[in-house]
Write a structure and sequence with these properties.
- The protein is of the alpha+beta class.
- It is built from 4 helices and 8 strands; from the N terminus they run αββαβββββαβα.
- The chain has a single domain, classed as Peptide deformylase (Peptide Deformylase), CATH 3.90.45.
- About 25% of the residues lie in helices and about 30% in strands.
- A 5-stranded antiparallel beta sheet has the order 1-2-3-6-7. The chain has a 3-stranded antiparallel beta sheet with strand order 4-5-8.
- β6 and β7 form a beta hairpin.
């Protein structure tokens, strides 16, 4: 088990486009993913991108807790999204930017510790990529699932959530956000 150090905002690895993974099934990628999984479990987040652990490759891992899906849906039991390993992802927004196809939500990030902000994202996306075994992934995601994938994949292009914010007055310390608004931020 290896817990990797998280790169913080300002580090050069977070400012550049990550490189494509040539062989998703390589032992090096398997080790990276295992270390990312251990790191994510240790810090308690919902997603992690390879650049966040100082590796400039197009790899993300994420999960969506069942409770988070139920809270969002409000219509009975949800299944959540199990831990997903996505290599060389491509995101296709579903809908038009700036309109009803987007919604603002509170986000936090392991690379921007202690802060959270309101970020506009597409409500629904399609994402594709491959798994560490080389199997293709092709999914439609909505709501928080779509938000998590967009957030993590932004890291692969050198984008942190504050760069997506349209109103910096909605950037807060997590402690203050919880204390005064009751909203929770997720990474």
């Amino acid at each position: 088990m290896a817990i990797l150090k998280i790169a913080r905002m300002g580090h050069p690895v977070l400012k550049r486009r990550a490189e494509e993974v040539e062989d998703p099934t390589s032992p090096e990628i398997a080790k990276l993913i295992k270390d990312m999984e251990d790191t994510l479990a240790d810090v308690g987040g919902v997603g992690l991108a390879a650049p966040q652990v100082h590796v400039p490759l197009r790899v993300v891992i994420f999960h969506v807790p069942k409770a988070r899906m139920e809270a969002e849906d409000g219509e009975g039991p949800a299944i959540g999204v199990p831990l997903t390993y996505l290599i060389n992802p491509i995101i296709e927004p579903i809908g038009e930017p700036g309109g009803a196809d987007m919604e603002e939500g509170i986000e936090a990030c392991l690379s921007v510790p202690g802060l959270a902000g309101a970020v506009p994202r597409f409500r629904q996306i399609r994402y594709t990529g491959v798994t560490p075994t080389g199997e293709p992934i092709d999914r439609i995601a909505a709501g928080f699932h779509a938000r998590v994938v967009q957030h993590e994949c932004d890291h692969l292009d050198g984008v942190l959530y504050p760069m997506r914010m349209t109103d910096l007055s909605k950037l807060s310390f997590v402690e203050e956000l919880k204390r005064f608004s009751g909203e929770e931020a997720e990474d």
